[in-house]
Design brief:
- It is a single chain.
- The chain is globular and about 70 Å long.
- The protein is about 35% helix and about 25% strand.
- The strands form six sheets. A nine-stranded mixed beta sheet has the order 2-1-11-10-12-13-14-15-16, sandwiched between helices. It has a five-stranded parallel beta sheet with strand order 4-3-5-6-7, sandwiched between helices.
- It has 18 helices and 25 strands.
- It starts with 5 loop residues before the first helix and ends with a helix.
- The protein folds into three domains: about 140 residues, Rossmann fold (3-Layer(aba) Sandwich); about 230 residues, Rossmann fold (3-Layer(aba) Sandwich); about 100 residues, ANL, C-terminal domain (GMP Synthetase, Chain A, domain 3).
- A hairpin with a 4-residue loop joins strand 1 and strand 2.
- It has about 525 residues and is an alpha/beta fold.
- Bound molecules: ligand J2J.
- The site of ligand J2J has 25 residues, from helix 8, strand 14, strand 19 and strand 20.
- It comes from Blastochloris viridis.
- It holds the Pfam family AMP-binding_C.
- It is an enzyme of class 6 (ligase).
Length: about 525
């Protein structure tokens, strides 16, 4: 793995960013200091730190007893349930490396993650109205390295999570500079890329985030977004909250109907949402019978929150807004809790660390003056230097001197604050879910009656952006409903099924008779929106 050059690593250690802490040690520290404090709450369970630690230790022994070996990768797919925590802390304790699938992922994505990581096992929950056992059956044929499938609840022919318990025989704590897990990228081209995060770098990111966001053992953090997403995991999210000894409350769904009663019951103090959900919450708050007064801070991120919407947070929800602009590859920016209103409303914050190196450059890679929009590049103590096992993505996504090309177009403002202006690439940000145009096009073109297809983003008042598929059919009888049904049969996450399908006879080409797909998408979009 390409990692931080030694002179950078030495500096990050000397400055106290990388402290040699590991995930197992973090949990053990809390379990020893405050064994009876509540750590994790879901619909059916309420675990103290002592309980979570005990379960993680038992699972670690159980996983190793299956024959899994420290260093092997394990794809985990859980909805917002407490089992997610006993499983991932069990894996950490056993020296195994979780690969985080989202609960919304289907066979196409999970198979890709399993193959790319050469996973030895797949672990999933039995919940959320989807049968992960059926997925596991199909997955075994597609991922030849898989030796074990572990399922929470009714496991049928697979190994039951509840049976994966044991005692003793555990290795020492992992090396803090080792990869702790593989997070997945929003994915600007093709399928998700795997992001190797080390104990040292990730723990730094949420420990420092705790300081910025005021997270302490008094914090009650509501996981409204999917538990495996990087934002609710680390900014400062559930991991930051557990680090501080606070309480993590898991919402089975992010809607106001589900989340508001939980806020009132558990006295939630902090949560993070994507902009479309923030809009829903603001609409629902004024008439709600539930007491939301414990909520001190609402974080919004994952996609651009417009100033118009940002302004309404305090009047409707009665709390402080914090904008969060982050990425699973590393760099995270926050508006600070005491920033003046115009900063909080009009910017996406500034980096966590004084040693985050941020460059804003033009198309040729030359730095642009403050206030001018350009490509954002980032390097630092918690920003990766390379994806896992992906030389071609690495060649595209990192500069020779190790800056990550975020693909975001930003303006840098006085004080180092960033304003996000858009994306350079072809990815669509649908309510915070990142969709790769290329990946969806590949699926469409697999239909025997589709000659060619191009996915473009269309502005949407609720979702921010929605997807529109321009499709050249081979037969006139092809129906929109069939295209959508076909996409669902492909086994992809529902959020990737095009929102809209438009049939066209041909894609207009340039005089040269050729267009890059990127230009094609731009032109289709411009034509569709009436040349805007
Ligand atoms: C505009 N675009 C944003 C914002 C992310 C914290 C918060 C979010 C993520 C995340 C994360 C944005 N305004 N406020 O990992 O720790 C878009 C950018 C960025 C991409 C990363 C975290 N916040 N974005 O969303 O890996 O385009 O991480 O490059 O899913 O989301 O997506 P992802």
């Amino acid at each position: 793995m390409q990692t931080w050059p030694e002179e950078f690593a030495a500096r990050y250690r000397a400055k106290g960013y990388w402290r040699g802490e590991t995930f197992p040690a973090v949990l053990r520290r809390q379990a020893e200091a405050r064994p009876d404090a509540v750590a994790v709450v879901d619909e059916g369970q309420r675990w103290t730190y002592g309980e979570l630690h005990r379960r993680a230790e038992a699972h670690a022994a159980g996983f190793l007893a299956l024959g899994l070996k420290p260093g092997e990768r394990v794809v985990v797919q859980f909805a917002n349930v407490a089992d997610f925590f006993s499983v991932v802390f069990g894996l950490f304790r056993a020296g195994l490396v979780p690969v985080y699938a989202l609960a919304a992922h289907r066979l196409a994505e999970v198979a890709h993650l399993a193959r790319r990581s050469q996973a030895a096992a797949y672990m999933a929950g039995d919940h959320a109205g989807f049968d992960y056992r059926a997925l596991a059956r199909a997955l075994k044929a597609e991922a030849p390295t898989l030796r074990h499938v572990v399922i929470g609840g009714d496991a049928q022919e697979f190994t039951a999570l509840e049976a994966c318990v044991g005692e003793g025989g555990l290795p020492g704590d992992p090396d803090p500079s080792a990869v702790a897990f593989l997070q997945i990228s929003g994915g600007s081209t093709g399928l998700p890329k795997l992001i190797p995060r080390t104990h040292d770098d990730y723990i730094y990111s949420f420990r420092a985030s705790n300081g910025i966001c005021g997270v302490t053992q008094e914090t009650v953090y509501l996981v409204a977004l999917p538990v495996a997403h990087n934002f609710p995991m680390s900014s400062p999210g559930h991991m930051g909250t557990l680090y501080a000894g606070g309480r993590v409350v898991l919402a089975p769904a992010p809607s106001p109907e589900v989340a508001f009663p939980l806020i009132a019951q558990e006295k939630v103090t902090l949560t993070g949402l994507v902009p479309p959900l923030a809009l829903l919450w603001m609409q629902a708050a004024p008439g709600t019978p539930h007491d939301l007064s414990s909520l001190a801070v609402l974080q919004v991120g994952g996609a651009k929150f417009t100033p118009e919407a940002a302004r309404r947070v305090r009047p409707t929800l009665g709390c402080t807004l914090q904008q969060v602009f982050g990425m699973a590859e590393g760099l995270v920016n926050y508006t600070r809790l005491d920033d003046p209103g115009d900063i909080v409303i009009g910017t996406q914050g500034r980096p966590i660390s004084p040693d985050d190196e941020v460059l804003v450059v033009d198309d040729l890679g030359h730095p642009v003056p403050e206030g001018t929009a350009g490509h954002l590049l980032a390097r630092g103590a918690y920003t990766i230097r390379a994806y896992h096992d992906d030389p071609s993505a690495n060649a595209r996504s990192f500069t020779a001197d190790g800056f990550y090309r975020t693909g975001d177009i930003v303006r840098r403002l006085p004080g180092g604050y960033l304003e996000v202006r858009g994306r350079a690439g072809d990815h669509i940000n649908r309510a915070g879910e990142k969709i790769s145009a290329e990946e969806v096009e590949d699926h469409l073109i697999a239909h025997p009656a589709i000659f060619d297809a191009a996915i473009v983003s269309i502005p949407d008042p609720a979702l921010g952006e929605r997807t529109c598929a321009f499709v050249i059919p081979r037969v006139k009888t092809l129906k929109v409903s069939e295209v959508k049904a076909f996409m669902r049969r492909r086994g992809i996450a529902e959020f990737k099924v095009p929102d809209q399908v438009v049939f066209v006879d041909a894609f207009e080409t340039t005089a040269a008779g050729k267009v890059s797909r990127k230009e094609l998408r731009a032109r289709l979009r411009a034509g569709f929106l009436g040349g805007q």
